[in-house]
Design goal:
heterodimer, A: alpha/beta, 5-stranded parallel β-sheet, 10 helices, globular, B: globular
Chain lengths: ~260, ~425
């Protein structure tokens, strides 16, 4: 099907998992109403979680997970050589994700605590771009299937994709979610007037599911463009949130690494 | 018998996580049969240390992308046990409803996307779009309902957002709940088709006696509970979970193994069926009987049949829960007050793949000082290995090919629907 003289590609797609929960790649099998059309617009040639087919020839490689072992580095380097477009899928691949929380602990102590004397090989967790060149990063824990689908369609039609510049906060307003910052806090002994929420400074595009579920944003998509961190910190502190609570949230998914 | 066979499967497909199968048969004799877990360790138990109780369920759910609702609920149960909190009745019902949604989405995903291609001798579900469109439509409808039920009640299927220590942080919209109830009622017809489809699949005839562990249902087919039971007669309360699991580190592989009365035991759909079948809904028991599933069943391949039975049971239970939650009158609070206190708590939940435990120790500020998570697939690894040891010799004949053996061994591993990332965590 040609559109405006453009012939769509049917890219050969591979999905690979590294250190992760495999929840992001699972989204490829969700959103059932367009699943057949989505799978028809691409050619899945290697996707271990749902298929026994294997191939070393692909155009687009989606990488889920962070990198925490030497064999993963070798595998990733080979994939980078073969893929035309390498996409980091989800917070672990994009930022290191929750896996980076282990980097705050002594690796030998952690190993002994879990495995005793029979320790296992492990390296500090890294995002994919810290090991190889990444062409596109899709943030989120998990990724939003609608957004992934839109991005894949942009790749199919070979047009550039732009992430929203606005923060999650705007998406709450658009879907009429009662602001979690204004909700009376039900925690006994809580002195704040509402929940802490990173919605004002986190990149939109997820359609704000967390505040709609009564949970303040934890920033799994990293900072929005031109996020006013300084002003956010001032307001959060004015509302009674301490440094520890705020910065623990900043580091949770790794997207706000280095932001202070 | 002059048959030599080799299976060397690196990263078995259509399972969650990374595992290898290596089998070597020489002159008809089994030389080596290895189930090896090569998943990367993530150290969740270490990462949980120092975390505030509000962060524990969010971090724990990231252990698994398929059964994140189970991990979140187990984490909440552990924290509430440590703090001595009893959650309101409405919250208990909403959590159980989300649990049924997860059981459905996970089982439907497994039955159609991961298991069915084996029985149809296909690499994946994708070729079925062209050859068996009606089957794909059926899977899509059921999977969609399950995912939307989770979205409605848990806020999101993968990594839920509507649950918090003390109860739930969101009560679903009543009209949407009623609509979901109607859809579930209509889906019962689709489930009958699933039963027909799976009755045509040839399930390998293999029996190896083992022990089955699950939550003990007092008067229900329990998915959340405080007591465990085994088919060898062991019964223990939640607080004694370590005596049920007996985890130990093995040399090869990154997951621990477990044992109880024997050298291995099994958890999951078949274990729940074997222990709690008398509490199944009548319609679900009738389907079990029609599909030839009887307790105590020792054929691991029949886990798939037990999953079909559980889909029917979970759907009927979900319909009733929605009726109760949308009935006339005040449903009371959805969240109890939370006062952190120093102490230890244990949560026990049946994840789709079997019994799951989280145990946390908290300080007086409500921060985790010690964490332990025992995952269903961790409990199954030793059993998978012992199955493999017996399955290969019982199957090999003069005409067996490497491909036949690889498929059979893969089907055995897949019958447990292993969540390998989870098992290493």
């Amino acid at each position: 099907m040609k559109y405006l003289g453009i012939e769509p590609k049917r890219p050969r797609v591979a999905v690979f998992d590294f250190t992760s929960c495999e929840g992001c790649e699972l989204q490829f099998a969700n959103k059932e109403e367009t699943l057949v059309e989505f799978l028809g617009s691409i050619e899945i040639v290697d996707f271990r979680e749902i298929s026994s087919d294997r191939s070393d020839e692909y155009d687009i490689a989606f990488i889920e997970g962070s990198i925490t072992r030497s064999d993963e580095i070798e595998r990733l380097l080979k994939i980078r050589e073969r893929a035309t477009t390498l996409v980091a899928l989800g917070a672990c691949a994009t930022f290191g994700g929750v896996n980076k929380l282990k980097n705050a602990f002594d690796s030998n102590d952690a190993n002994r605590e879990v495995y005793g004397s029979r320790t296992k090989e492990t390296l500090p967790a890294r995002a994919v771009h810290e090991v190889v060149k990444v062409d596109l990063k899709i943030p989120g824990c998990p990724v939003n299937k609608e957004e992934v689908e839109r991005i894949v369609q942009h790749l199919v039609w070979d047009v550039p994709f732009h992430f929203p510049a606005y923060p999650v906060c705007l998406e709450c307003k658009q879907r009429y979610t009662v602001c979690v910052c204004d909700l009376d806090c039900t925690e006994v002994g809580c002195e704040t007037t509402g929940q802490l929420c990173l919605g004002p400074i986190t990149r939109g595009g997820c359609n704000a599911p967390c505040p709609a579920g009564g949970l303040g944003c934890w920033g799994c998509r990293g900072p929005a463009e031109d996020a006013n961190i300084e002003s956010f910190l001032a307001i959060a502190k004015e509302r009674g949130f301490g440094d520890r609570e705020i910065f623990e949230r900043f580091e949770f998914f790794g997207g706000f690494e280095g932001v202070r | 018998m002059k048959v030599n066979l080799d299976v060397d499967l690196h990263h078995i497909a259509r399972v969650e996580g990374h595992g290898n199968i290596k089998v070597r048969v020489r002159d008809g004799k089994l030389k080596e049969a290895n189930w090896e877990v090569v998943e990367t360790p993530r150290f969740f138990e270490v990462m949980l240390k120092g975390k505030h109780y509000t962060a524990s369920p969010l971090l724990s759910s990231r252990i698994c992308g398929i059964c994140s609702i189970a991990h979140c609920l187990t984490s909440l149960e552990a924290t509430e046990d440590a703090f001595g909190i009893t959650i309101p009745d409405q919250a208990t019902k909403l959590r159980l409803l989300a649990k049924h949604g997860e059981t459905l989405q996970s089982h439907v995903l497994h039955l159609f996307f991961l298991a069915a291609p084996d029985f149809l001798r296909l690499p994946s579900v994708i070729p079925l779009i062209a050859t068996h469109p009606e089957l794909v439509e059926l899977a899509k409808r059921l999977k969609s309902i399950a995912n939307r039920l989770c979205d409605l009640v848990a806020g999101r299927t993968t990594h839920p957002v509507a649950f918090c220590v003390g109860g739930v942080s969101m009560v679903p919209d009543k009209d949407k709940m009623l609509g979901m109830g109607d859809e579930l009622v209509r889906s019962v017809e689709d489930l009958k088709t699933v039963v027909e489809v799976f009755s045509t699949f040839e399930i390998p005839d293999f029996v190896r006696e083992t022990e089955f562990v699950s939550i003990k249902g007092d008067d229900d087919y329990a998915f959340i509970g405080r007591e465990m039971v085994s088919t060898d007669g062991v019964v223990r309360p939640a607080a004694e979970y370590l005596q049920m699991t007996n985890e130990y580190v093995v040399g090869r592989g990154t997951s621990k193994w477990c044992k109880l009365s024997r050298e291995s035991f099994a958890v999951g759909a078949l274990a729940r069926f074997n222990n709690n079948y008398e509490h199944l809904r009548t319609e679900a028991s009738a389907i079990a009987a029609a599909l030839g599933l009887e307790p105590v069943c020792h054929n691991p391949f029949k886990n798939n049949v037990a999953r079909v039975v559980e889909c029917v049971h979970a759907t009927l239970e979900a319909i009733d829960l929605i009726d109760e939650l949308t009935g006339f009158g005040d449903h009371g609070p959805a969240r109890a007050g939370v006062v952190p206190r120093a102490g230890v708590g244990v949560g026990v939940v049946e994840a789709p793949r079997g019994i799951l435990y989280h145990s946390y120790e908290y300080d007086a500020d409500g921060r985790v000082t010690k964490a332990d998570c025992v995952i269903p697939t961790t409990q199954n690894h030793a059993n998978i290995q012992h199955d493999l040891d017996e399955l290969v010799p019982s199957f090999v004949s003069e005409t067996t090919t490497d491909e036949d053996l690889e498929l059979l061994c893969s089907m055995l591993v897949r019958s447990y629907d292993p969540c390998i990332s989870c098992s290493v965590h």
